[in-house]
Specification:
Blueprint (H helix, E strand, L loop, with lengths): L1 H11 L6 H7 L4 H12 L3 H19 L4 H7 L5 H12 L3 H8 L6
Length: about 110
């Protein structure tokens, strides 16, 4: 059930997803789903969803020149400042600093 949910989240992380929608996806009660998810992964479903979104942001920051605000919208967030705080908490870097430090050089 939990690996099914992880696969589903990996395909739908860009959309707003409630705990109820996650639980429905695997036919479990929300509290049961949260408990099983945490036992299986060590993270809550919300933490896992944040992880997926931050990983995609890191990929986009490393390979794309799109504005940070557009990346934030692309990965399912609306507020740039709250995403920036989350990104910094999870990576230790601001999105702008991450881009400058880790952007891949495209050789033509």
């Amino acid at each position: 059930e939990i690996s099914e949910l992880q696969d589903w989240l990996e395909q739908h992380y860009r959309t707003a997803i409630s705990i109820e929608a996650m639980a429905t996806q695997v036919s479990l009660a929300p509290r049961t789903m949260i408990r099983r998810f945490k036992r299986a992964t060590g993270q809550t479903p919300q933490q896992y969803l944040q992880f997926l979104r931050v990983e995609e942001a890191k990929r986009l920051l490393g390979y794309d020149d799109m504005p940070i605000s557009q990346i934030v919208n692309e990965i399912g967030y609306e507020d740039v400042s709250s995403f920036t705080r989350l990104f910094k908490r999870l990576t230790g870097f601001s999105p702008g600093y991450y881009r400058k430090s880790f952007q891949k050089i495209n050789i033509v």
